[in-house]
Amino acid sequence: MTNIKDKSLQTYLDELASKTPTPGGGSAAALMGAQAAALVGMVCNLTIGKPKYAEVEAEMGVLLDRSEALRERLTGMIKADVDVFDRLMACYGMPKETEQQKAARSEAIQSVLKEATEVPLECARACFEAIDLCRIAAEKGNAGVISDAGVAVMSAYAGLKSAALNVYINVGSLKDKEFADRKAQELESILEGTEQAVDDVYRIVKERL
Amino acid sequence: MTNIKDKSLQTYLDELASKTPTPGGGSAAALMGAQAAALVGMVCNLTIGKPKYAEVEAEMGVLLDRSEALRERLTGMIKADVDVFDRLMACYGMPKETEQQKAARSEAIQSVLKEATEVPLECARACFEAIDLCRIAAEKGNAGVISDAGVAVMSAYAGLKSAALNVYINVGSLKDKEFADRKAQELESILEGTEQAVDDVYRIVKERL
């Protein structure tokens, strides 16, 4: 099957809208994160080499390396969300006639649910990092393309808040409450202060337009 | 040249990150809007036909038609942003040796700048509409896929705030102040209350997870 990242935007949107459960919101969240990282990369690429921005050239080079690495991670998560969903559905389809089968099925579901919690949490972490990179791009990047840093931060924020919803769903179904609480707490610590950080970056961009 | 919507996600992201100025934030904004509409469509498609949701079936049918029409509009805007940018660059490249050439060039730039204001403003209007559709999906859609309505609203909001930045840039360069003020005011009236509306939809989704 074609890797989702190799599908066209039109096909991706068509499949998103369709009644097939994947791709869904988890892939959309990862795509928004990847898009944010790509836009940070664009700001770097259009800042590096401009005499006016020679002073921040080295910093932009480091930022570009970070944003490109982050983009690769987030692009991979577009597919990871589909994969873990498919594995979860396979577990739900396991036989449940005997007590032994029921126990094996439940154990398999719980095991994959932990992965299904980890995938959007990892997306949330990556989007959080992207917001930080957006701030640098917004403060130091070429003012001529600074709106792209603003689009990037909104995209990263949407990716983060979207991934959060998928974490909430999965922690709610976990029987291992200690694991669930730990993941939920990590998510809250990521979300804390994020709205303010995003507002700050957006404001910086607006001031530099 | 390949229409941008027929390019793969990977190619789109690569081109976004590259130093070529298009695609840029305007296309990213339209894609987020289209993605929001697609996710509303998904919620409708996974609600229609379910006996538990028979009561809202007709409403979901109407919502699906509206979201699919909106998706088509927004998908078209991914390319429209590139097109108007290319036209604007062509104007900036016009000769400016003689006074007559300067005047013709300036007139051409101002004319295309009006279009370049209208394109993201139209994207902002469409994303605003999408937020309204997200609310219906969040309130009435199948609870089993309700997180997708939450991802949709964040995507639409990011699209709207991103499009707004592109409106701000272009109105700032317009010499026709009456036109510029009118467009800026329309944008402000769209933005007004949007944050609260988005927060409300997100909260409804969280409560129904």
Could you characterize what this model shows?
- Chains A, B: Its EC number is 3.5.4.9.
- Chains A, B: It comes from Methylotuvimicrobium alcaliphilum (strain DSM 19304 / NCIMB 14124 / VKM B-2133 / 20Z) (Methylomicrobium alcaliphilum).
- Chains A, B: Residues 8-188 form the Cyclodeaminase/cyclohydrolase domain.
- 2 copies of one chain form a homodimer.
- With 209 residues, the first copy, chain A, is mostly helical.
- Chain A has one domain (22-208): Formiminotetrahydrofolate cyclodeaminase monomer, up-and-down helical bundle (Four Helix Bundle (Hemerythrin (Met), subunit A)), CATH 1.20.120.680.
- Chain A is 79% helix and 0% strand.
- Chain A contains 7 helices and no strands.
- The longest helix of chain A has 42 residues, at 99-140.
- The model of chain A has no long low-confidence stretch (mean pLDDT 97).
- Chains A and B meet through helix 1, helix 2, helix 3, helix 5 and helix 7 of A and helix 1, helix 2, helix 3, helix 5 and helix 7 of B.
Largest interface (CB < 8 Å): A-B, 56 and 56 residues
Largest sheet of chain A: none
Q: Could you name the CATH topology of chain A?
A: Four Helix Bundle (Hemerythrin (Met), subunit A)
Query: What multimeric state do the chains show?
Result: homodimer
Rg of Cα set of chain A: 20 Å
Domain Cyclodeaminase/cyclohydrolase (chains A, B): 8-188
Keywords (chains A, B): Hydrolase
Protein name (chains A, B): Methenyltetrahydrofolate cyclohydrolase
GO molecular function (chains A, B): methenyltetrahydrofolate cyclohydrolase activity
